[in-house]
Please model this.
Amino acid sequence: MCGIFAYSGQKKSAGDLVIRGLKKLEYRGYDSWGIAYSENQKIGLLRKVGKIGEFDLENTALPQSTLAIGHSRWATHGGVTEENAHPHVDAQKMFAIVHNGIIENYKELRDELQRKGYTFKSETDTETIVHLIADYAKENTFVTATKMAIKRLKGRFAILAIKADEQKIIAARRGSPLILGVGENEFFIASDIPAFINHTKKVMYIDDDEMVVVNEKPHFYNIHSGEEIEKRVVEINWEPQSAEKGAFEHFMIKEIMEQKDTIYRAINQKDSEILHLADEIKKAYGTFLIGCGTAGKVCHAASYLFSKVAKRHVNVIVGSEFPSQQDFLKEKSLVIAVSQSGETADTLEAIEVAKTKGSKVLSIINVEGSSMDRMSDYAIHIKAGPEKAVASTKATTSQLAILTMLAYACDNRLTEGKRLLIDTAGEINDMLNPRYEKHIRALAEKIKDFESMYVIGKAVNYPIALEAAIKLQEVSYIHAEGFAGGELKHGPIALISDGTPCIAIVANDETRTDILNNAMEVKSRGGFIIGVSPQNEDVFDQWIKVPDAGNASPIVNIIPIQLLAYHLAVLRQNNPDMPRNLAKSVTVK
Ligand code: F6R
Model:
């Protein structure tokens, strides 16, 4: 949530570089943006409401500067206005700040600063930080003043600060992502690696409660003790083009299509490690699967897989609800955190609780080096490559693949599980052809003007129905809801009227008869049934064929619905990569 990008080096086009970097981070927040640079011993500011992607950089002359910081905003405190857009500056325009996260004690700090005569121009929590630095800087150096200000902040944050007359960026973080990219006599700081991967693959991770002063050489400090910390430069192995759209119109369709090979990549893990983690699950006094949004639905689906494949009970709790159930966690419990970004605040909080209780943590994540990766006892990287569309697609199916593999491993059938997933990956490759996409687009044309639609599923495909509804809601903005097929008759069936589209996810297993009966109940009340199933059925008005994937059915069933959501979004003239009100990587609670 909120994208941060900064440059310090010898190039005089820092502003230009920062805007280009922010454009790559726009998926993290896109209601307003801004940059700050040093110009004639003062801070220069450029701030705009709207998407940075729409800014015509080619035809805009930016002032020359070797240092700049920038921010693409997802509003938390204060409306979407130019005054609330970051960076924020002090009255003398000597200091500038960008910030991602929430400063919990900002009211108290703001009151204190107002009593001292500072005036505020925005409604943000961020502005307090810049005045606090300016206040401490009356009697201290920029570095000391920033250290003192940061020490006073409560909450989660990633912050960058600059001073107009110093070639220096100070970065600090607690709970929000921030990574330092190390080039040849130049540095980049960003919320996410893909933003600077075209400049350098060398990174230094900034950990929680750390601050780094970047000038000729970066110096890391612990925020609390002030002690200097030794850091390593790590070389990352992503290719720059994996973070680009290439020939595709949107990242979402590119990422859906990448599922032709992301499942293979996900399951390409060392057997010994998977078996070891399966052992940890078997030994644990309670396993808790935790995730938010789509990742939460993956956890929910996995609970059915563990039950069916491994005859093992696992608990599922969505990240934001975890605090109310944390008392069930014991020292010997295992928390499995599922997350694409590895930065979701609610999931991170659950991990923090688990660690204080002495429970072990296994993270299943996409972003290597993310907070979850670094905080967990064990990590499985799903290796899906950068996922830039806000709506999660390829990460979802890769997470499902990993959890399916773990369920099989818990039943000492890892090889069988892997075989199933390899076969499924092959079937997905065949399925995702242009004819298939055309068929789904034609269906999208047919239903694009409906105001509501429903998705039903049973057993492991019930959470997939819930996930399908999330996909449809977030990019098409059609009111979509997912239900367990058997629940309809207990109330929701009253929502069905003539022609209402209802997707029935029908797996070729013991649930088939029941879910077909539920679909028939909907059809009898006028519903238009779209069946997602390996075979056509009488009750279907429209059939979307999927491979018969046995216990991997959740993986194949969600893919056509991702495609449907994408085409509905495009036909309804929505931007599927940047849906309204949302942002990738939810780093606030
Ligand atoms: C929906 C979506 C979100 C995320 C959720 C958790 O398509 O992407 O619901 O799944 O915000 O994010 P991660 O997986 O990064 O923890």
